Amino acid sequence: MKWFIVLSLLAASVSCAQQPAGPSTETATQPTTHPRLVMTPTDVQKIRSQRHQAPLFTTSLDAAKAEVDAEIALGIDTPIPRDYSGGYTHARHKKNYAVAQKAGALYQILGEAKYASYVRDMLFQYADMYGDLPLHPKPRSYARGKIFWQCLNDANWLVFMSQAYDAIYETLSKEERDTLESKLFRPFADHISVASPQFFNRIHNHSTWGTAAVGMIGLVMNDDALIQRALYGLDLDNFSDERDNDGGFIRQAGQQAGFFANLDSAFSPDGYYTEGPYYQRYAMYPYLVFAQSLSNAGYAEQAFARSNGVLLKAVETLIQLSDSDGEFFPLNDAQKGMSLQANELVTAVDIAYQASGDPRLLDIAQTQQRVLLDGAGYAVARDIAASKTVPFGKSSVAVTDGRTGTEGGLAILRAGNDNLELVFKYTSQGLSHGHYDKLSYSLYEQGHEVLQDYGMARFVNLGQKGGGNYLPENSTWAKQSIAHNALVINETSHFQGQYDIGSKHHSQLDFFDVQNPAVQVVSAIESNAYPGSSMRRTVALLNLSGSTSPVILDVLEVQSESNNQYDLPFHFLGQVVETNIELAPASPTTTLGKAHGYQHLIVEARGDVKGTAPGNTKFTWLNKGRFYTLTSTAEPADELIFTRLGANDASYNLRRDPALILRRNDTSDTVFASIVEPHGSYSPINELAIDAQSNIKQLQVELNTTDYMVISLTTMDDQKTRLYLAKNQESGMAHQLQINSTQVAWTGPFHLVQKVTP
Amino acid sequence: MKWFIVLSLLAASVSCAQQPAGPSTETATQPTTHPRLVMTPTDVQKIRSQRHQAPLFTTSLDAAKAEVDAEIALGIDTPIPRDYSGGYTHARHKKNYAVAQKAGALYQILGEAKYASYVRDMLFQYADMYGDLPLHPKPRSYARGKIFWQCLNDANWLVFMSQAYDAIYETLSKEERDTLESKLFRPFADHISVASPQFFNRIHNHSTWGTAAVGMIGLVMNDDALIQRALYGLDLDNFSDERDNDGGFIRQAGQQAGFFANLDSAFSPDGYYTEGPYYQRYAMYPYLVFAQSLSNAGYAEQAFARSNGVLLKAVETLIQLSDSDGEFFPLNDAQKGMSLQANELVTAVDIAYQASGDPRLLDIAQTQQRVLLDGAGYAVARDIAASKTVPFGKSSVAVTDGRTGTEGGLAILRAGNDNLELVFKYTSQGLSHGHYDKLSYSLYEQGHEVLQDYGMARFVNLGQKGGGNYLPENSTWAKQSIAHNALVINETSHFQGQYDIGSKHHSQLDFFDVQNPAVQVVSAIESNAYPGSSMRRTVALLNLSGSTSPVILDVLEVQSESNNQYDLPFHFLGQVVETNIELAPASPTTTLGKAHGYQHLIVEARGDVKGTAPGNTKFTWLNKGRFYTLTSTAEPADELIFTRLGANDASYNLRRDPALILRRNDTSDTVFASIVEPHGSYSPINELAIDAQSNIKQLQVELNTTDYMVISLTTMDDQKTRLYLAKNQESGMAHQLQINSTQVAWTGPFHLVQKVTP
Q1: Which of A394, A426, A458 is the last residue of a domain?
Q2: Shared-domain flag, residues B44 and B183
Q3: Is pLDDT of A27 > 60?
Q4: Are residues A455 and A485 in the same domain?
């Protein structure tokens, strides 16, 4: 609470603080008419006269009209704020700003006065209430709002209400504007900025919303001081000891602040947002609408041009980070099911299209089946109607993490007719929403999860589940290493599950090569998750003889100064079909451990590998009509452990999902080599089981030295494939190796030989 | 094995056994040309000349052509029989007869000789092999086949191969026909009939297949002895002590046998098949193709006309027994996912349409998107193209069980825009595939399971799961009462889970009234499942004030001579949202019991009701974006028990599904009243939770006497609804009752009063 005292002193003076020295002096071109944010008078004219050329625009307009008309009929309600995100007042105020923004757009496009009146009446109701509002009564946030329990939602409100106000600005008298601005908008903007610097002056999606909100209302009111505050932040001391509700740092020493500083540092040069796609989706909205508003206002320095055009790259990357159904890969804290269908993505795609003209974006817009009610949305709808669409064509891709692209990254391998997608993570921590999941991967086929990333333990806005906020199990389970397809040493999460340590490190890409669609490989190294141990994981999508789908080869090498217990989980989804190891039910059923997520795992069954010939464990499961087999190299003392999530969770905050854990005891240096093999199909309608058996006869680590590893895979038709991996290689280095009597020479980090002669 | 000895003596003599006295003497009209089974020369002519009028026929023809051409390219393989249903030889022979049947149809329609040659070559390969074949080497069946491990599959083979032979009959020389008939078809027909009377001479779907197979090959060969054998069975002694592999009786004293006897007794007068829709689907194929073959052959007595036209009623009923996605309700032994899309249903719908001309069947055919390659399929495709389709319109319906319709039955209540479907079961045992699930119900919304029926524990044709056959857990779990939404007394299944006892009894319909779509009610009584106890369950779909969807009111009254433990399970699917009772995790986790299915249930959490105001327990869950709340009247000593399936199942033959069990201890007469309430929605894309809370404020049993029960429901807007139930009432009886100062009079078994004044 201590900064509140400091800040109330600052509040009066800061709004006239000097503009920080920016790279160029910003001056507005002083537009004399409204609207001027996401829509311009020229846009309005074009839409009014040429709307018939853009049927998807009309569809979207009709939908908005139906929604707004229903709300107008219902009457305006601006209840005294009371609830967390699951409750009525939260939902009502949220709905208000969304509807007001749409009503403003309807007024501009249709010219019907009732929409302007509706917005005006709502704004005056807020203006009458706002002056007397104390802080929101719910105390949980590190930065409490007034309309909502956190400043973040207040900032959402202002981003949308700025647009509503902008749309009806010209319909109001000067007196009306003065009333709204003095009683509502200026104190509102001050509360989320000067009165809440711990919220406003960060490098974080919260501050992106906060700065965009202040900047946008500043643009509407033509208030350059507010615009400068938004673009460059408050000139304040640091808050380096403070944490937010998620445990993230408020601000670190020496950081710049403001919208531009956020834009410059939030994305890697490849447009990857370090918190992951779920939060990237959330952050894109204020980035893009404020960027477009600055563009429409004709500011000298444009947001779209900053950092080498990273905003538009970020839209491209965000689309790449979705599965074949358009759902985002749930990396770090992320609610599953969020997808390209979200409103934020309609905004992102439409604005990016207007800025870039990339016709592949029209392909995504077509799946969304709606557009923004502004110039950008019109352009998209018009060009779809004019058949300018080009297939987006998601591809295998690696993106860097970190502001300068030097903090690890993320790779997606894509292949096959069944849309096999493998997401391999070797990023930095991902700020306070990051998970302890170094070198983990998840696997998708036809948009279905095969090996899942759990996502977050939260039901956003569902009041009965912890007020719709993060649940305790997000920390105790979802963030932990064992919750991911990641190696866990001695039942302890990476970096001991400590954010301060994790934030200092990142994994390192070894190599990424997708030149040959039949042999796509990515490899990365993690040396800091466990002091004294290092891990290298190489995953490859391979086409094998006799297999109709590509298979995943997964080679995880660990080197350690000590003997350890290694757990390698596979979070499969579906029905167990069979294992080649006899399983014994755990009785009485116990949890797998005490902490680091292990306390949530019930042991269902165990199997001892013992002398399983030929040294491979095999596990087949069935999910959504498709078979999958995991074939793994095994040591005689290894165990298979089948677990079920849900121990110590009488509130049922967690899903009851299964996992298979490969456990190796009392070992230092070792290799886990596995194949994940999609095969065949089962239909309950024709009751045919096709190719229900694995096509892998044997998987072997044939050689493992300081410099090289050689893995061989033999299929049922006795065809052998060898993958040669060079460790510690430098780019373009030549290698030579002999196995049995066969000599092989190659250049680069790996080499694949099919149809090996014995 | 003992009947084998008897039968080998009988085998030689029986094929010339006298024809049993049928209701009329059957004489064939001696058709002189082929084809004469499912297709006639007239059909062929019409199809050849008018195919352009039926695009769906052409689509189906093209698909068959592609499949058969690929098989012709692959070459014919008739391997020596070896495997159970999961294995290669089983799948290959199955594929052979399916492809041969299609190749025959292609020959007739396209006139291309290569299709006739393909069928001929395959038949001769079988003829060469068949004579030397011993019984199939796999010993598991009570009636072993030669091509397959059971006679049932051999009969499938002959039903299809008869059609293939029929199609190419005219292309063969007399010598070729003699060879095929003497080396293949006659011994084949004899093996599944005279050599396997325990298979052939039953009232069971096995015998339906067996008799149809023998009858159809008899029709092709114009062999009246075979046709008579098929229609009227073998004249043999009973096999009343024998059981089949499912524990069912081979044959009971005094039963008739043969195709007609099966037809007469398999269905209730309403067309319900006592084993349930999954097996009805399976049995419909031989019933309909043989019926159509008899019709095409011009037999005096027609199968379609028998038993008041029950075959066509059965098709109608079968369609009614599917959910809004077209999947069959998985009553008794049934694999989930089987649907109107199955090949057998294409056959059923097309043949029924040809026989009845009911244009609602075209609606189903349109969803199937394919038709039979014969006259029936042509008629369907032509009439769809001619826009004769009428919506099928599934409705609330009650069907009787038992040959005379006096052995209980099944009711389906349907209501609401979200396709709420409740399936209430008060049938007889359902032969050897029946489950111990008296007065249970399952619930569906938009084709999703809300309260599930587990179905069967079997993965049909998936070799790795017990050879694709029934798994041990089908008996130890799936058939048991606790596996259903059915009351279980003292941890013992209905009829002690004993088939012999269960087969003697059936439940009794009390009343069924769906006149008013806003108040649909069904009630039934079970007096034999537990000696000394009787149960009456009344379920109603009600529209309530303030609820956007209908709710289910479920009133289960039990009367008993002794004090008992009662368990009422609700097999919900989805994520637990909340309960109004505090739950404690079970630790260490234990199974709920030792037998009758309880040994497979892991206790996850328990809650004690104690003094929960206002005497209601509440449980809300979330499934597929929809909320559901169960509100139940509770006694202070009641317990809520949350369970998870899967204990004592290290082979993972069972799904890990949840259930909530309401437990009441040490009680004799009592009432369980519950409301199951679908409400609101949750979307992970807009992250909005709409109407996430129950609309039920209170549920009360206000009165319970020998003659009457009164239940009241109060919604959140304080509107009270009362349901008056008259027990022991006779049709049209008038009732009068006073509660507080309110006097109510009505006629009939129930009376609903909305907006009760307090």
Answers
A1: A394
A2: yes
A3: no
A4: yes
Per-residue pLDDT, averaged over B659-667, amounts to 97
Conformational region of residue B389, where left means phi above 0, alpha means psi within -120 to 50, and beta covers everything else? beta
- Closest approach of B584 to chain A, Cα-based (Å): 6
pLDDT digits (tens, 9 = 90+) for A170-208: 999 999 999 999 999 999 999 999 999 999 998 888 999
**Are residue A281 and residue A229 in the same domain, yes or no?**
no
What pLDDT does A611 receive? 62
Phi, psi angle pair for A492, to nearest 5°:
-125, 135
Picking from B588, B687, B692, the nearest residue to A460 by CB comes out as B687
Is B21 inside any structural domain?
no
- In a domain, residue B250? The reply is no
> Is B206 a member of any domain?
yes
Is there a single domain that holds both residue A576 and residue A620? Answer: yes
- Measured CA to CA, the distance from residue B579 to residue B423 in angstroms comes to 26
Closest CA of chain B from A590, distance in Å: 7
| pLDDT of A368 above 70 | yes
Same domain? B555 vs B581: yes
Total tally of structural domains belonging to chain B: 3
- pLDDT of B23: 36
Q: Which pLDDT belongs to residue B2?
A: 43
Give the residue from B473, B589, B653 with the most A CB atoms within 10 Å of its CB, the best one to mutate: B589
**pLDDT score recorded for residue A614:** 63
In CATH, what number is assigned to the domain containing residue B726?
2.70.98.70
Q: Hey, are the CB atoms on B583 and A650 less than 8 Å from each other?
A: yes
Q: State the burial class of residue B531 (Cβ atoms within 10 Å of its Cβ: 0-12, 13-18, 19+).
A: exposed
Q: Is the per-residue pLDDT at A25 higher than 60?
A: no
What is the least distance, in Å, from the CA of A560 to any CA of chain B?
A: 34
**Which of B589, B650, B689 is nearest residue A463 as measured by Cβ atoms?**
B689
Same domain (yes/no): B367, B401: no
Co-location of A446 and A387 in the same domain = no
Q: Are residues B401 and B390 in the same domain?
A: no
Q: How far apart are CA B307 and CA B256, in angstroms?
A: 15
Question: Average pLDDT, whole number, for chain B?
Answer: 92
Asked whether residue B758 is assigned to any structural domain, the reply reads no
CATH number of residue A226's parent domain: 1.50.10.100
**Residues in chain A within 8 Å Cβ distance of B285:** none
Q: Which of A341, A462, A692 sits opposite B462 (nearest CB)?
A: A692
Cα separation of A143 and A152, whole Å?
A: 8
Q: What is the pLDDT of residues A504-546, one digit of tens each?
A: 999 999 999 999 988 999 999 999 999 999 999 999 999 987 7
Beta-bridged to residue B738, according to DSSP, are B743
By annotation, the residues of A acting in catalysis are: 279, 433
- Domain boundary among the residues B358, B373, B394 is at B394
Determine contact, residues A592/A641, Cβ cutoff 8 Å.
yes
Q: How far apart are CA B157 and CA B178, in angstroms?
A: 20
Is position B433 annotated as part of the catalytic site? yes
Q: Average the pLDDT over B2-31 and give the result.
A: 40
> Is A687's CB within 8 Å of B91's CB?
no
Q: How far is A431 from chain B (nearest CA, A)?
A: 23
Q: Which domain holds residue B230?
A: 1-16+40-241
CA atoms within 13 A on the CB side of B482: 33
Scanning every residue of chain B, which has its alpha carbon at the shortest distance from the alpha carbon of A694? B464
Q: Smallest Cβ distance to B646: which of A584, A604, A651?
A: A604
Beta strands in B329-464, from DSSP E residues, in sequence order: 397-400, 409-415, 420-426, 440-445, 448-451
Task: Specify the pLDDT at position B169.
Answer: 97
Q: Residue A35, preceding bond cis, omega within 30 degrees?
A: yes
Contact (CB, 8 A) for B413 and B421: yes
pLDDT at B151 (0 to 100): 97
Q: Do B584 and A651 touch (CB under 8 A)?
A: no
pLDDT score at A37 = 94
